[in-house]
Amino acid sequence: xxxxxxxxxxxxxxxxxxxxxxxxxxxxxxxxxxxxxxxxxxxxxxxxxxxxxxxxxxxxxxxxxxxxxxxxxxxxxxxxxxxxxxxxxxxxx
Length: 93
Description:
With 93 residues, the chain is an alpha+beta fold.
């Protein structure tokens, strides 16, 4: 089955952008969208910025495992977005 390279998935009513990497055969998900779906933060982008800095200071590998991928934003344009595959987002590193 052929997978679309860029799609939106829904988690508990929230849209999460994702990108299929054919070479790695993995879905990459927008970190900001995941935070927005799981957290009550009014500004998930700012929340990720602060969390990302804290994780870097702690030496966490989670931040280094995030890739910048171009994903379509609500304005229809494509921007680089921190993205991670499911295993990275679901375990402590």
